[in-house]
Structure prediction request, 670 residues.
Amino acid sequence: MKKETVFLVVIAAAVLAFVAGRASTSTKAGAATGSAPAAVAAAAAEGQAAPAAATNGIPASMPWKGAANGAVTILEVSDFQCPFCTRVGPALKDLLAAYPNDVRIVWANQPLPFHNNAKPAAIAALAAHRQGKFWEMHDKLFANQQQLSPENYEKWAKELGLDVEKFKADQKDAAISTQIDKEQAAANATGAGGTPSFFIGGKLMQGALPLDEFKKAVDAALADAKAAGAGKTGIDQIKAAFGKHGGEAGTKVAEYFLEGKAPAAAPAAPEAARGEAPKTDEGPATAPPDSFDIWKVPVDVKRDAIRGDNDKALVTIVEISDFQCPYCSKASATVVEAEKLYGDKVRVVFKHHPLPFHDKARPAHAASIAAGKQKKFWEFHDKAFANATALTEENFAAWAKEIGLDIAKFDADRKDAATEKQIVDDMEMAGAVGVRGTPGFMINGRKVVGAQPLGVFKAVIDEEIKKADAAGKKGQPYYDTIVAQGKIFSELNDKVNDFSYDGLPFIGKKDAPYVITVFSDFQCPYCSRVAKPLRDVMEANKDKVRVVFAHFPLSFHDKAKPASAAAQLAFEQGGSDMFEKVHDALFAAQRELTEDKIKEVAVAAGVDKAKLEEVLKTNKYEELFKKTMAMGEKGGVEGTPSIYINGRKFEPQAGMGPDVFAKAFALLKK
Prediction:
């Protein structure tokens, strides 16, 4: 049965979550896009700002792609410097494919203030939009997040065939900057303060959601769109659908983003004493779709840092955090607002999760635990977050003095084995409940990922208070009852995929008992980071491990396929040894990958130059890549790198050392 047309305006903003880098995919050939319609291009040629004309309710200044008409609207808000915004790309690509006549994705900007290059990148993208190349520039920006600069914007404009002088002039046009500011104000006023955020049928959802969640949201909005939008067109249809599905808040979303109405300025709120509700305009917010499961999150009242009343609290917020994570300090401030709002109905428990790539985090966490042993954890916590870029031994000592610690005891407690054990225990707990990055929050065992706005916390807290009131229980005993039967995350998915490895490159013994399959992309910065850990695993397990490289070149990485082709040819010509040389050389040259560079490193490793040129010219391995990517998508690959052990998806929570893999191997033996 044909689905009703769904109009989806996705507003992608940068929300946190950690894990593999996944970026937005290119628009398919032939798909409709809203990058500078003819009227816009004509006006732009005269140096004018994009006209106020709209396409089926979407202002000409806002890029869109997908179905030109729609019954249900999903609104997108994003930040080009946010690594997490890239992850929704594959899911959105698949969503458009699943609803080819139903879904339209509209882009709005939310450049976060701590991303210095985000707004200039947004300006460059909208300047490209005036020449009909927004989505092409969008792909360039996400594929090169670490190289966002004016020089590169101009370089990419040339590569895309833009009129460079006009592109440069449009970047200076105040109208573009004003448009971004208005979109950001609309996002902030409607609860989309983090990225990525999505308004689906006028209802807010946040985070880099999997395809299934997007589909559920679209299908849920469909009935309301049919009921409300019948006989209506353009902005009237969108507002009716948003109002039906998202209520009054949904109507505001349409008004602020699509009609250009200015949100009412929020009144300045006085300092609220603990227990007093701060005056804020929350905008629409619902509990995140993945927040309804209860996870087993133990709280030790004797060891954990706790703020609040252990006897009176109806809701426990477990904050899983990293002192070097810039998003964690922002989220911590939001938690304080929640405490002001709910008073002694809420308590906060801090759990330590220093991420391995934050080299200053673990010492800071050890210092905070030492401060806690003198009942000054929260004072040190505030110092660390206020100075997250200055986590040094000298500062730890200075802060200890400032908050009145016994320095000798502080130094001794930092080095105490019990301190390190607490950190390890907390990290293992985070892994057990599926929290891979920071910040993560468990609200009465319910997971909320990322630096979410206060409204999201309120949505979950309000639901939990109702449950507690109905049960007539509170405090630590009530909390223990809630989480006692909670879920525990398994790093190895139960589903066993029957992957075909025919012809794919591998390293190690072909008959090894453990086969690690890595779906990878040579231009993915995260993929390059797994090479060494996997080599360490092979070294630790000698002939017991085979690593298979499964090509997964993402569409917005334009050199990923040529690089994979060179690596595949190396394997066919020289086996595992030559493949490994080319594999390592390509990742080492990742930031300067060009076709010439690919040829250079491959030939240096022994690949036949003439055959390589023929392979690149004829796209010899196109069918192999399609087959491998289809295999990965069927197995649940949503981005790169994705790792499987003996066909089971592997999502380690505590790094990728040999000991982590050893635990997975042990599970496979059971």
User: Anything to note?
Assistant: The radius of gyration is 26 Å. The chain is about 45% helix and 10% strand. The first strand starts at residue 54 and ends at 55.
